[in-house]
């Protein structure tokens, strides 16, 4: 059993924490936006759709740059958050989580939206005649029926977050123990003379993590499918 | 207490204009060909679609009125809706499905009534299963139970049997009969199957091309030959009520009494209740000027001609009142309390026999053409 060095463990845990927080914090918004896109009929739906997909097509470095402009301590939004809530994103792991959340947001929305669109509309009508109002229907039907999509989206988004590099390094820099996630640690090791072995070990760790994620999602999906058909 | 519907609405290729009033007991069949607007009409009654204008009352409660700006949402209309495709919630167990409506309704059915319904529908053994593990017939029974447990003022059934094969239909039909005879809830039953109408319905609303053409008792309506969806049909005919008086199981026949006339039909078993409903298609009824002898047909019934309608090009529909009118009594068109039978014969036959109003003739009916249905209570 190969043991991990403290720096490797630090980068691993930081990556998991940043991705975990990013996915969990983005989840409610992703459900909201996916519901609006899948079931809502309102003007501007097309624009919302485009905005959600923006991070998929923009270069990550540009995303990081935009975040820096928007959430820097001297930027209007950033300074307001800092002064009012004492929330600082720049050079902090929370900023890395914000960047990851935004970049992986489209993955969550797409998966959830797809599963919402597959729900038979007739079920909502049936629930309505049985006395369920819109909020009730959302929690008793929409959410549980979209659960496979929500989980699939969360896992994909988590995996995408783990690999995020450009937006993080641009927005919150590369600070050991604060914002140096696995990809940034690999990059640093490659830049350091004699760091080839360290880079290889970190890369292997990343690959292992990716496979573990894949396995986890497969198990989760199988469980859900079994529950739905039991 | 009754149900009043008077609405107009724009549908795809035609306008929907419905205007009818039905009592709030028993089963009312909403009958019409496919695409005549039946489903839209009950969606409007349920509150799933909003008509352009009109007025809807369920059990004397106004649920829609465009002038008074009343439009109760579906969840407040207290309707139980059984869909063609059951629409059970796939992620919930049978039990959770059944109580979905009941849990959301402040006026719950008493517990013993709930159990009676579940027991009658035979779904207690299924409670822990999920819909994916149910057969088509079981799904439709659970769907019916779910609607009933929500304690609705009216039950709307949208072709609940059309997705089922013949055997499953026979499995479900008795449940509707039980409901009709044992629960006071009115039912609006959408169908294009005349045999379901004849077997189940007490009242009937006929719809064609989005217009409700007529409504009334099923005996009266099925006897009418002037309504397009019924008249052109192969199976236009009469529904009669009769009583089993004796039987000959060896010969596989039952003897019935229908308004004083004896009828012989295929064996109906030995039901506790002797009342039966007969569906006799007009094309299966022959007319003879004198009582024929030496023929295989078992039923030669004296009848009096009360109406001859010549609306079809090549056939004539003849209304026949059961029994021969006493001589000298003036004949008139109304049924006079006596049941009326219909015969559809060719124009040529009518001409050849020189049939005329008030004539005393004989209706000849082969036993095997009669659909007999045992009823649970007097009709």
TrEMBL record, chain B:
SUPFAM superfamilies: MOP-like (SSF50331), P-loop containing nucleoside triphosphate hydrolases (SSF52540). The keyword Cell membrane applies. PANTHER family: ABC TRANSPORTER I FAMILY MEMBER 10. Residues 294-374 form the Mop domain. Residues 2-234 form the ABC transporter domain. The lineage of its organism: Bacteria, Pseudomonadati, Pseudomonadota, Alphaproteobacteria, Rhodospirillales. Signal peptide: none annotated. It holds the Pfam family TOBE. InterPro entries: AAA+_ATPase, ABC_transporter-like_ATP-bd, ABC_transporter-like_CS, Mo/tungstate-bd_C_term_dom, ModC_ABC_ATP-bd, Molybdenum_import_ModC, Mop_domain, P-loop_NTPase. One of its GO terms (molecular function) is ATP binding. The keyword ATP-binding applies. The gene is modC. Keywords: ATP-binding, Cell inner membrane, Cell membrane, Membrane, Molybdenum, Nucleotide-binding, Translocase, Transport. This is Molybdenum ABC transporter ATP-binding protein.
């Amino acid at each position: 059993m190969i043991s991990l060095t403290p720096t490797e463990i630090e980068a691993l845990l930081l990556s998991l924490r940043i991705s975990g927080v990013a996915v969990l914090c983005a989840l409610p918004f992703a459900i909201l936006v996916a519901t609006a896109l899948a079931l809502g009929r309102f003007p501007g739906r097309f624009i919302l759709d485009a905005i959600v997909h923006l991070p998929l097509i923009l270069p990550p470095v540009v995303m990081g740059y935009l975040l820096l402009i928007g959430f820097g301590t001297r930027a209007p939004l950033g300074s307001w958050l800092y002064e009012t809530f004492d929330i600082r994103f720049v050079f902090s792991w929370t900023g890395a989580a914000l960047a990851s959340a935004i970049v992986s947001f489209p993955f969550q929305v797409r998966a959830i939206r797809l599963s919402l669109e597959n729900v038979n509309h007739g079920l909502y009508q049936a629930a309505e005649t049985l006395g369920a109002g819109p909020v009730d229907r959302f929690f008793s039907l929409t959410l549980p029926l979209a659960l496979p999509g929500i989980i699939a989206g969360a896992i994909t988004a988590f995996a995408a977050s783990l690999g995020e590099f450009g937006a993080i390094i641009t927005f919150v820099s590369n600070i050991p123990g604060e914002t140096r996630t696995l990809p940034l640690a690999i990059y640093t090791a490659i830049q350091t003379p004699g760091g080839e072995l360290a880079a290889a070990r970190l890369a292997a760790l990343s690959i292992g993590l990716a496979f573990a994620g894949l396995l986890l999602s497969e198990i989760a999906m199988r469980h859900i499918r079994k529950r739905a058909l039991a | 207490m009754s149900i009043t519907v008077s609405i107009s609405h724009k549908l795809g290729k035609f306008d929907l204009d419905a205007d009818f009033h039905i009592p709030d007991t028993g089963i009312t069949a909403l009958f019409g060909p496919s695409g005549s607007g039946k489903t839209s009409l009950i969606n409007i009654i349920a509150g799933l679609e909003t008509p352009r204008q009109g007025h809807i009352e369920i059990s004397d409660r106004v649920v829609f009125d465009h002038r008074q700006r009343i439009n109760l949402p579906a969840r407040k209309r207290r309707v139980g809706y059984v869909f063609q495709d059951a629409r059970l919630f796939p992620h919930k167990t049978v039990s959770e499905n059944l109580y979905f409506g009941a849990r959301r309704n402040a006026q719950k059915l008493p517990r013993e009534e709930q159990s009676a319904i579940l027991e009658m529908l035979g779904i207690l053994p299924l409670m822990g299963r999920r819909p994916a593990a149910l057969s088509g017939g079981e799904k439709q029974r659970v769907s019916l139970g779910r609607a009933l447990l929500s304690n609705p003022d009216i039950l709307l059934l949208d072709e609940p049997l059309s997705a089922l094969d013949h055997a499953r239909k026979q499995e479900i039909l008795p449940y509707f009969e039980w409901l009709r005879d044992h629960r006071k809830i009115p039912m609006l039953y959408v169908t294009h199957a005349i045999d379901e109408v004849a077997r189940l319905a007490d009242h009937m609303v006929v719809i064609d091309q989005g217009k409700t053409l007529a409504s009334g008792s099923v005996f009266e309506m099925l006897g009418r030959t002037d309504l397009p969806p019924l008249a052109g049909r192969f199976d236009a005919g009469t529904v009669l009520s009769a009583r089993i008086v004796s039987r000959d199981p060896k010969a596989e026949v039952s003897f019935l009494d229908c308004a004083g006339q004896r009828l012989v039909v295929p064996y109906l078993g030995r039901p506790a209740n002797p009342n039966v409903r007969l569906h006799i298609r007009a094309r299966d009824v022959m007319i003879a000027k004198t009582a024929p002898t030496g023929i295989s047909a078992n039923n030669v019934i004296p009848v009096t001609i009360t109406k001859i309608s010549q609306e079809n090009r090549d056939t004539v529909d003849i209304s026949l009142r059961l029994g021969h009118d006493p001589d000298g009594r003036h004949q008139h068109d109304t049924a006079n309390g006596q049941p009326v039978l219909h015969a559809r014969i060719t124009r040529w036959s009518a001409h050849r026999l020189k049939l005329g109003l008030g004539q005393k003739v004989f209706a000849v009916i082969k036993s095997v053409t009669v659909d007999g249905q045992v009823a649970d209570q007097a009709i």
